[in-house]
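### Sample
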Amino acid sequence: MIDLHESARNALKACGVADAALTGPLPVRTPLTGEELLSVHEADAAETAAAIAAAHAAYLEWRVVPAPVRGALVKTLGRLIGEHKDELATLVTLEAGKIRSEALGEVQEMIDVCDFAVGLSRQLYGRTMPSERPGHRLMETWHPLGVVGVISAFNFPVAVWSWNTAVALVCGDAVVWKPSEKTPLTALACSALLDRAIAEHSAPADLHRVVIGAREVGEALVDSPLVPLVSATGSTRMGREVGPRVAARFGRSLLELGGNNAAVVTPSADLDLTTRAVVFAAAGTAGQRCTTLRRLIVHSSVVDELLGKLTSAYGKLPIGSPLDGDTLVGPLVDAAAYSAMNSALDAARADGGEVLVGGGRRQVAGAEGGYYAEPAIVRMPAQTDVVRTETFAPILYVLTYETFDEAIALHNDVPQGLSSGVFTRDQQEAERFLAADGADCGIVNVNIGTSGAEIGGAFGGEKETGGGRESGSDAWKAYMRRATNTVNASGQLLLAQDVSFV
């Protein structure tokens, strides 16, 4: 079997990470085998405060650099990521457990986001509005915001960072990044590549800082008045703490929290297409995406046929080491994730659910310490509390419906509101699902699964998902401040609304 330690060290070295960064008290374990790969330095609150102060000083210089020049730095970052795509994908696999295809896809997403941000650097548009006063011009301008604090999760260890960082940099901001303690090696590699881009463009050296650590590091970012925006990805529980603390100091928060995503399958659906889409959305990444399909709401007339197709496909899923090119389902991140999956399955059975396939632990040769779970399909008699709760594991709950209104009501009857889908060849059903009285999520799809969003659209959700938007569209506005400007060229003092003050 490949030497995982050596593979990680070689990938890090190729990206420019110094050996000195790979010594410290924080162990980094791989979900592939459960063994320790390396260890890294763990920051504390004081170090985090110093990093924030340094980033703020860099921001004061960076904010006056023209946006297209800022974009050139991000272009270089994208080039460097592309040159080290294989090494970064290797680290994603070793730390997060993703199969090679998904790991490469995540790194490609970073490259795409950099391309998007480079174009954005020449499109930070404001508006000119008609003034009611003659000789006056009314307009808006957008300015850099400050230091952006990024708190990311293990399941997308690099892509979510790039969504925030590439856009923040072209907007004129600095970034302080707290990665998950489970995936710090990918963070060190990305930071090293960005440091190279910063040096190549003679930009301020502290424009980007990484702080690796536990709760106190996150709290220092959340509570610092020098961090006007905190972008945090994680659980709803985490968001309940982050949001109010940032708001208490009148900062901004961009929250990407839990998802309990559902798809509705109608009588007219193409069941072969539906099966392929559902298997990837529900079992891909071992169910460890915020956009993973967790609930399938199927019309009673087609449920038996669809379940036959799905259970057959699940029974053939190649489960094993993500280093094996034939594997489609890799490991859960750790023992706690596997325990949570078992607890959810027990609760579903207690609620009358029937596990149709999966749910066990697959033993993988040479990886006895890894937790490889068999993706499960559970037919439920009703949408109970366990179904309404997101379990970060490959469990797909199947519910049935009779009317489309009932399907939409089931779909929306959860606290989360991230991603959704409907499978139908009926145009009226598709349009209803997309309408204001349809799915209540931030991402609403037709004839496609809930996962695998493209970077061009804004990513995020409603309700307990947090309401944040990142990546494409006009998500850049969260990283800037808006100023409304009035310019008086009339030579007279004219007041709005015909006010007279003599």
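Residues 261-446 form a domain with the Aldehyde Dehydrogenase; Chain A, domain 2 fold (CATH 3.40.309.10). This sample (aldehyde dehydrogenase (NAD(+))) is used throughout the tutorial notebook.
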